[in-house]
Amino acid sequence: MNSKSPILKASLVILLMACLISGCSHLQPSANISHSIKGVCGTETFDKVAGISSNKGFSVANCEKGWALASGSSPSGALVGLFKLKVKSWVLVNKTYSGSPESTTANSLNVATIDYGIEPSLLQSLAKPFDLKIRQSASADVITASLKNPLLGAGDSMQVSSVLDVNNQSWLVAEVPDGPISTSSMVNPYPDGTVDIYTWIKTKWVQAGKVHGYMGPVGPCCGIEAENLTGSHEPDFAITGGGAADTNWLSIVSDVGGNWHLAPFDYGYSLTTVVNGVPMDNGVSTELDDCSCAGGPTTGLFETYQDGAFRPAMLPGPNPSCSLTALQNAADPWETPIINLTKFACDDGWAIATGTGVGFNGPIIGLFESYKGKWKELELDNGASLGSYPGFYDIPLSLLDKLAGKLNAGFKAALASASIFAESDFTAPYPDGIITVGSTSWLVVEMFASTTSNNLDLLIYRWSGSAWVESGVIKNLPPYQRVGNGWFKAVVVAGSSDPGFAFPYMNPPETQIVTDLGGTWHLQ
Q1: In the listed set 150, 183, 205, which residue is the last one of a domain according to the structure?
Q2: Residue at which a domain ends, from 358, 388, 415
Q3: What pTM does this model have?
């Protein structure tokens, strides 16, 4: 299983740059409030320090060794305040509203040692007179303080859940990266991470499980929540991070089957442990934005837990009619039709259809996404880029193969190219598709030379009639020759019976040619 998803490649670099500019740390302390009051330990004192009217403020307070903890309730929810004595006056360190009067979980206490410098044992002592949730949060601080990696820099982070109550059982989940972010890698700047799962038994947190794997960036948003997604007796935990405009990195930690693990997703070309998505309706709504930018294209998929992984499922809500008429109207809505679709297949919010069209040489194939109850046309061409669809759109290779298998309509070489893209690992610069010269089909693919190198390997394939056969390899091209999503252009090379291939973004494009002139593929 490839744990690092191919479709999040662009987001890695974009989010990394944002982190380097602004800093990505989930555990940032709240701004201190400078107002201070002489050091009397009492709720009225702490109301004044926190700027709260007495009828909406703290009702319980405890002070010890220059620190104080206070709690109460307010219209904004349960209230917890942490205070520090400075020069005989109390200063507010942090004030938290839990969000609802029924909850007294003090999220800030989970990380008080890391954020504010209070000793874990002192925080636990301060919490003794308070209700269970505050005591649990103070005990959680002991765990998070021990998990924080002192080698991680300001751009690296950790995430800790609030105390999560599910079916009368309390849980705590912490995620920590195994190392610092790589500031130089285009391949994958984010390390694997470790998730620790704890449950509250009697008077303390007891570790229920530990999970290690790839989850993308840790923080700066969006938290850890308990969900019911797999049917497991214990809750599933949705871990989200990243927070780029079009990317929400999601991993699901579950003990379905009896062991805590990262639940895989059928996403892109293979199974992966992280997707761009959010939990929704007892499943996961995933998204693929190929450019990780507002321009898209952005497509989506709904997945539910089936056969050991999250796999494509029918979208909740209204779905368009799976009919030739509906797809024909989406592909060619004009009064004078130029497209004639003859075969189609639909499943799990996606459809493909084949036929003929004016201006096309040979059969055509269309790709459609269910969007707001209607079919939306995404591709309509000769199928040369069919194998790259799982890299550009949120249609996994398994679903693409399923739909194409129902049609049995050809495009064998294009579908077979998908297996080559799948082998190119999670960070490959995707090519677009097949290059046909005369009666011969070619495929030119760039891959990163290794997971630790930004250099590229260029692979040239020829279609034998039944399979793609590697014709040659050019190793260790410099990063500036990365073509991204561009097409190589076939050109004539004097003295060679095979075509050459020009890099798409060179100006002029024939500046450097990939050729086998002389018997070995090389750059000319």
Answers
A1: 150
A2: 415
A3: 0.86
Token representation of residue 399:
């679903």
Please give the Cα distance from 375 to 389 (Å, whole number): 17
Q: Give 132's contacts (C-beta < 8 A, 6+ positions apart).
A: none
Q: Which domain holds residue 240?
A: 1-23+154-313
Q: Which residues touch 322 (CB under 8 Å, ≥6 apart)?
A: 344, 346, 351
> Which residues lie closer than 8 Å to 485 by C-beta, 6 or more apart?
290, 392, 429, 430, 431, 432
**Nearest Cα to 136, choosing from 161, 115, 99?**
161
d(CA 393, CA 517): 37
- Lookup result for tokens 């004097």: 494
Overall number of domains in the chain: 4
Overall residue count recorded for the chain in this entry: 524
SS3 content of the chain, % helix, strand, coil (to 5): 20, 40, 40
Q: What H or E segment, with its residue span, contains residue 140? A: helix 132-147
Of 155, 261, 305, 260, residue with least CA distance to 218? 155
Question: Is residue 458 exposed (0-12), middle (13-18) or buried (19+ Cβ within 10 Å)?
Answer: buried
Query: Is residue 466 exposed (0-12), middle (13-18) or buried (19+ Cβ within 10 Å)?
Result: exposed
pLDDT in tens, 276-323: 999 999 999 999 887 666 667 789 999 999 999 999 999 888 899 999
What are φ and ψ of residue 111, in 5° steps?
Answer: -130, 30
CA 162 vs. chain centroid, Å, equals 21
Bin 518: left if φ > 0, else alpha if -120 < ψ < 50, else beta. Answer: left
Residues 59 and 2 in one domain: no
Average pLDDT over every residue of 436-446: 91
CA distance 117 to 84: 10
**CA separation for the pair 145, 116 (Å, rounded):** 11
> Each residue of 331-386: pLDDT tens digit?
998 878 899 999 999 999 999 999 999 988 889 999 999 999 999 999 999 888 88
Domain annotation covers residue 402: yes
Tokens for 383, please give them.
């199928």
Residue 43 lies in a domain: yes
Residue ranges in 40-111 assigned as alpha helix (H): 43-50
